[in-house]
Amino acid sequence: MHGYDIVELFPFTSDVDAQAVVGLHNAVGREKIPYRQDASVEQYRAKNDEPGIDMRHFGIADADGDLIGLLIAGVWVDGTNSHLVWVQIGVRQDVRKRGVGRALLHRAVALAKEKGKSLITADTISTVPAGKEFSEVIGADVAMRELTNTVLT
Fold this sequence. Notes:
Blueprint (H helix, E strand, L loop, with lengths): L5 E3 L6 H18 L8 H7 L5 E9 L5 E10 L7 E8 L8 H15 L4 E3 L7 H9 L16
């Protein structure tokens, strides 16, 4: 496994950090849902300031300091979903299959242990083959399938 340094990113320490996180989040999001609108930094901040959920953000940068991997983790602190951590892992396309996702997953597991949680949940969809492949490689169980019917006008 690669020895990537993982740092906590949110709340943002600078506008540059904010743009990097939101930029990678948007790029990965467009893979998942090609017609989705990109979030602004302000929208991202608001979305990740949900009452009752401690949202944690971790990242991995390359040697040039560019963000190449992002872990978003939600830990419920309001008494609901007290057994789980919800995670989203995004890795820049050009650095996939180099251990970035696995390093972020290890950080998610450590966070779950720190918070006394017994389950990590995440999602992927067929429009992101890399996500499906990653899920299979790590031995994730398919626990729920979501069907979406979208009508575009």
